[in-house]
Amino acid sequence: MRILTGLQPSGKLHVGNYFGAIEPAVRLQELGEAFYFIADYHAMTSSQDPAALRENVRELAVDFLACGLDPSRAVFFRQSAVPEVNELAWILSTVCPMSLLSKCHSYKDKIAQGIAPNHGLFAYPVLMAADILLYDSNQVPVGKDQKQHLEVTRDIAVKLNETFGDDCVVLPEPIIREDTAVVVGLDGRKMSKSYGNTLPIFGEEKPLKKLIMKITTDSTPVEAPKSVENSTILALYKLYASAADYAAMVDDHERGGIGYGDFKRRLADAYWDYYAPMRVRRKDVLADLGYVEQVLAEGAARAREEASKTLIRVRRAVGLL
Ligand code: ADP
Ligand code: TRP
């Protein structure tokens, strides 16, 4: 079974990225042949800053390794180190209806945010389909926000197979973690860089804990019972606490008599402890950036081997060979 996922190098990893993408990827590398890549071509659709791109790619590589990506199990590479993906994207684009792309939420959202509607942004899901289909991926772990892109990928795959033969490409399955499908941000909306409500996973203790103290709460007085359903603190705490500690905080909400400040401190401690082993590993990785380069180079070589096999098969099917 091949498991594949890509992550955009778009800044500091936050808790939403971690539980939506990194943690499932690290867990799944035990269960099959994992292909994980840094989606640098995709990042170019929303930011054109060469220095930032280089820095973000390096940072994501370091952080992914720190979070437990194991290069002896997973093939880890930069998307752009396998330029074959562009050829497959082109082939896919010739069977992909415009209507499939114009209905994509992510495209519409980005335009609404004021990002210029360039062709790359519009064609983003086609490149993503190429990422997935190029490696004959069976399972693709992603956050809920990527669900539609996976549907587009499957639609394109079906179309390609209908047009050129059933065994042209493998139909992938999305894996969406329902329990942490959408991690809430500090203001109670979905955690996202574009909302400025993120909690990074790496950084200095004081400022990070301070961010947790800024979580938006209602004005229920200390003595009164507090809403469990609407509690951003509880939603985040669930990600870090044992079942017993979580149940205790739910009780404390329902009983009243404890203020939000106390809940936030418990959350801050649980969060900080959770990432402790990863912080240690990150320090080691940062001390040896040559190792990171080597991992990515070996991953790219392995990925290209697979990519060229698929591409030969697809080229034959469509008549380019
Ligand atoms: P952002 O919304 O901050 O720009 P990205 O779109 O770069 O984050 O997402 C990177 C990865 O992290 C994707 O796989 C996405 O599904 C996942 N992800 C991002 N935010 C969340 C969230 N709040 N909950 C769950 N997964 C998320
Ligand atoms: N679009 C994904 C995101 O923003 C990143 C990505 C690119 C991806 N190609 C992929 C994820 C292929 C899974 C499979 O998070």
Total of domains: 2
Counting DSSP E segments of at least 2 residues, the number of strands comes to 5
Helix content: 55-70%
User: What spatial order of strands do you see in the largest sheet?
Assistant: 1-2-3
Can you name the CATH architecture of the largest domain?
A: 3-Layer(aba) Sandwich
* CA distance, first residue to last residue: 28 Å
Task: List the uncertain runs.
Answer: none
- CATH 4th-level superfamily of the largest domain: HUPs
Mean pLDDT: 95
Overall form: globular
Which kinds of small molecule does this entry bind, naming each only once? adenosine-5'-diphosphate, tryptophan
CATH fold-level name of the largest domain: Rossmann fold
CATH uppermost class of the largest domain: Alpha Beta
Write the layout of secondary structure elements.
Blueprint: E1 2-7, H1 15-28, E2 33-38, H2 40-43, H3 50-66, E3 74-78, H4 84-93, H5 98-102, H6 105-112, H7 119-134, E4 139-141, H8 147-164, E5 173-175, H9 205-213, H10 232-240, H11 243-255, H12 260-274, H13 276-286, H14 289-318
Parallel strand pairs: 1-2, 2-3, 4-5
Helix pairs in contact: 3-13, 4-7, 4-14, 7-8, 9-12, 10-12
